[in-house]
Design goal:
Order of helices and strands: HHHHEHHHHEEHHHH
Structural class: mainly alpha
Strand content: under 5%
Biased composition (Basic and acidic residues): 311-323
Largest sheet: 3 strands, mixed
Oligomer: single chain
Strand order of the largest sheet: 1-3-2
Biased composition (Basic residues): 283-294
Biased composition (Acidic residues): 329-369
Region (Disordered): 276-389
Helix content: 40-55%
């Protein structure tokens, strides 16, 4: 499935201003980080917001009493180690006292190392996953109905027998259904105006406090309606701070030790060691084909694969071809030798023939000379005889 590109909000402004300290569209990660380090930056100053419209009605005034008692007594369930004042618990009476008590500044002055968590609700652009209940919906966690049942060993039974829960349930028993609905609406409106609440499960029987693993203090959830932003923006790339290692590089340690032992400059040792490592890397460098090479499994005894037979044929044919080629070359060399010998013999025979012809010519000439001399002598003798006649 193709990723759907999220259109940029035309109202988005990344500039940090007093109205929007993290810009108009900070990411969820930025909100978590600023709430953990300095929550007052993104949360506006405490304002005296009334949960009633024009003037407090009888029901609104009635709600303030159990709210004040709940705020004072709920701290009783916290380990006194985290309280700034372990002796004098706060006493609240008015609606303004309740607002200041559940504000970021009020909690920081009351509790050691509190952990403030974001409220995943109300805003557009929240990260995937289920949203958390609004502050108005959380009233049931702290003011459970009459039907609530706690285990016999739960400390909530003390609140139900002696504390604010007993007073709240007594009010519910004396009211009609319509009056109970009006009382519930007033409680929802009052909780929606609070800046912080204890971070706990919505279940009424859950633990009163959750402690942060890193800070070690109790966790508080900060109302999303008080954030200084227009919407939740996209996640921004994080810049990681490159921190130096505590241990020096191995090459540096080795260079210093060798230089100290041999009493030579460190730079020379460092260059020499770098050169050795460079040559070692070149020697160990292999191609992907060599790295992926696998030796073929051996064939079972008595079994000859097709590939091995083909390889055997190729070897035999190659051997025969080499022998045939070698024999042909030998024959050619012999023929060349015979041809050379025959040519020499022909030349010798021709030379001998010429010599014999020359000898015959000389012999003929000698014979002619002899015969001529005899002829002349014979004529002379004839002439002598004729003269005698």
């Amino acid at each position: 499935m193709a990723n759907v590109r999220k259109d940029k909000d035309p109202l988005e402004d990344p500039r940090y201003t007093s109205e929007y300290p993290l810009g108009t569209h900070p990411s969820w990660t930025e909100i978590m980080e600023i709430l953990d380090s300095n929550p007052s930056v993104i949360v506006g100053p405490l304002r005296n917001i009334n949960f009633w419209k024009d003037s407090p009605s009888t029901t609104d005034s009635l709600v303030i009493v159990p709210l004040a008692k709940w705020s004072s007594q709920y701290i009783f369930a916290m380990n006194q180690t985290f309280l700034a004042d372990q002796v004098n618990y706060p006493l609240l009476e008015t609606w303004e006292d309740i607002l200041r008590f559940w504000s970021i500044a009020g909690i920081q002055s009351l509790v050691h190392t509190p952990a403030f968590q974001p409220h995943k609700s109300y805003w557009k652009g929240l990260p995937p996953g289920p949203q958390q209940a609004t502050f108005a919906q959380r009233y049931k966690t702290f003011f459970p109905p009459l039907s609530v049942k706690f285990s016999t060993t739960s400390y909530w039974n003390y609140f139900l027998e002696y504390g604010y829960m007993k007073d709240y349930h007594d009010i519910l028993r004396t009211k009609t259904e319509e009056e109970i609905l009006n009382l519930t609406d007033s409680l929802k409106a009052a909780f929606d105006c609070l800046q912080c609440l204890p971070s706990r499960s919505p279940n009424s029987t859950s633990q009163a406090w959750i402690y942060d693993d890193e800070k070690g203090g109790p966790c508080f959830i900060v109302n999303a309606k008080g954030y200084k932003l227009l919407a939740i923006g996209a996640r921004k790339p994080q810049r990681r701070d490159v921190k130096p290692r505590a241990v020096a590089a191995h090459t540096h340690i080795q260079s210093l030790l060798v230089a100290d032992k041999l009493n030579i400059p460190v730079t020379e040792v460092s260059e020499y060691l770098k050169g050795e490592r460079r040559e070692a890397r070149k020697a160990n460098k292999r191609s992907a084909r060599q790295k992926n090479y696998r030796k073929p499994p051996p064939c079972p005894r008595g079994h000859t694969s097709q590939n091995s037979m083909e390889n055997t044929r190729d070897d035999i044919s190659k051997t025969d071809w080499d022998q045939l080629t070698k024999g042909t070359e030998d024959d050619e060399l012999e023929e060349d030798g015979i041809g050379i010998e025959s040519e020499d013999e022909v030349e010798n025979e021709a030379q001998d023939k010429e010599d014999m012809e020359e000898e015959e010519v000389h012999e003929t000439e000698d014979e002619d000379m002899v015969n001529g001399a005899e002829f002349f002598s014979y004529q002379e003798s004839d002439s002598d005889g004729d003269c005698s006649y």
